[in-house]
Amino acid sequence: MSASSNEFAGGAYLPPHQHAAGVVDFESRGSEVRPMLELDQVLESIRATAYRWDFNTDTVDWAANAGAVLGGIDMSKLGKGRAFALHVDPEHAGARYDGITGGPHAAPAAALPYTLHYRLLPEGRRGKAALWVEDLGVCFTDADGRPVLAQGTLRVIDDRRDGDRAHLAGGKDELTGLLNRTQLTEALSDLLSDAARSPTNGAFLLVGVNDLTLINETYGYDVGDELIAIVGRRLGRVVRGKDCLGRFSSNKFGVVLHDCNAEGVEAIARRLMAAVGDSIVDTSVGAVAATVSIGAVLLPQNAASAQNAMGHALQALDEARTSRGDQFCCYVPSERQDSERRRNVGIADDIIRALNDRRMMIALQPIVTSRSHEPEFYECLLRMRRLDGSVVSASEFIHVAEQFGLSKLIDYRVLELAVDLLRATPKIKLALNVSATTATDPQWMEALEGFTGKDRTLTERLTVEITETTAISDIKAAIKFVSTLKAIGCRVALDDFGAGYTSFRSLRELGVDMVKIDGSFIKNLGTEAEDEMFVRTLIDLARSFGVVTVGEWVGDERTVKLLEKAGVSYMQGYFFGAPELQKDDPALKPAKPAS
Questions:
Q1: Which residues pair with 79 in a beta bridge?
Q2: Are residues 11 and 81 in contact, defined by beta-carbon separation less than 8 angstroms?
Q3: pLDDT for the residue 23
């Protein structure tokens, strides 16, 4: 089985009888005492190491010989699965994770054996060194089929012949029988290499199945898999014999077209769309309608490498999906868009490095009690320290984190920092924001329970904030999230209250403890009569449900007096104190109004 795609993963294992330093065990035979083999020595002799990976904490424990075996990697920096994932070829990382964990439909309470082959990058994804490794082990799942623990061995196999290596990395996509992503990438690279040697035209297409998430939620993942397999067969009937069709990711197929100009690319794309959408798909639960969108990039003129071609095709596919009309789009070079994309990729890389280097920090801003203006609790606001020592606020990178799917990693880190501060400062109370993805992520809740040990002296001093738009987008999930948090002692606040126009009924159903009135209404108090009336209405509404209120963005004394007159419970803003970076030894002082 080979690995591909873009999930993060890692691993670690130390057999129970083996110590980190490789201590020798002994066995007795009559009167003779003979040393048993040192496992590290045995493993190293065959260029192998061992690991154990705890999914609950993402912690990786390695055998003592791991660094030497795996190309001199500094294993002290690979104590987390996500850190190890950055040393796995991006083409292989996702399938590696699915291969170890059994994927989204893993059997519950099972021991799942796995044998994987993938490319390891000892110097990271920007380095040139590469090793092919065989990953052999077993993954244990819980009652819900979620991975709990994986343990196994990594063996270097890059001394195999190229043909053997291709065989190990190969293998068809299990669901569709088509090329997998690794083979598809190789076919794309071969096309670009041929084009460099002799003039030829070609293209790469990404075919995305529309609304697969809705189909999965409506009919179940098994039907979604049926649909993917049928779509793959329909696409295969249209693709020419000299072209290559493969599965790029869960709901995307890739097509490598040879000897094809721009007009021919569009003609083939429309035949592919018609092959899928012109007739109903018969599944085990009945007929299901399916359509696809297609993004294309012309080669070699618009991409110099396979990775560039895939990136441009993804960009074109996104445009095709958001278009109100045509569902086909061909990539057109744009220096502005390319520059923005390169910038965002760079920011995403900075975020990952900052997470790994523990350069993500929290700044604390006081939330004060009405009238007394004494801090009741502090909001944790995310900051990132760059390599040059400068510090930037979340507003400069959080949109990229959301775009690249890094929000949950950030939320885990902020949670860890907040709980550490709660434990170190017994009297402090904190509030932290979570993203929309985290608000429906059961693993984040497990992390909260793991970090706090369900210690109510910690959880009762923590308020978790979710945005109003997040809550109303999936009210049932939000209600479950709120009730689970309150059951372990946390308070829950509804942030940006008023921006999403939550109904009275929704506010009651949510059961939150606090609402934070959106600052866009607060900043105009005293100048906009409509905003004053709206804020008073929100405060009265919250009070009628027994919910306390926070006025955000408080910047002057006039706003303070208006909010207090309206009956607000707490206030937050630069008038009472700007966010301050949390130091190792905090000395938090009561906030005082600015003069």
A1: none
A2: yes
A3: 40
Q: What is the pLDDT of residues 37-76, one digit of tens each?
A: 566 666 667 788 899 999 999 999 998 888 888 888 888 8
Beta bridge partner(s), residue 294:
207, 328
**Single-letter residue type at 564:** E
Strands in 320-438 per DSSP E: 328-330, 360-369, 375-385, 391-393, 430-433
Q: How far is CA 505 from the centre of its chain?
A: 33
Q: How far apart are alpha carbons 183 and 95 in whole angstroms?
A: 13
What is d(CA 121, CA 442) in angstroms, rounded to the nearest whole number? 32
Residue 551 and residue 369 in contact, taking contact as beta carbons nearer than 8 Å: no
For residue 16, the model assigns a pLDDT of 36
Distance CA 266, CA 366 (A): 58
Angle 306-312-313 (CA atoms, 0-180°, nearest 5)? 85
User: Distance between CA atoms of 328 and 316, rounded to whole angstroms?
Assistant: 8
Write the DSSP string, 70-115. Answer: TTT--GGG--BHHHHHTTB-HHHHHHHHHHHH--TTPPTT-EEEEE
Which of 137-141, 294-298, 525-529, 541-545 is modeled with the greatest confidence? 294-298
| CA 543/CA 179 separation, integer angstroms | 60
What is the pLDDT at residue 487? 94
- Judged on CB neighbours under 10 Å (0-12, 13-18, 19+), 17 is exposed
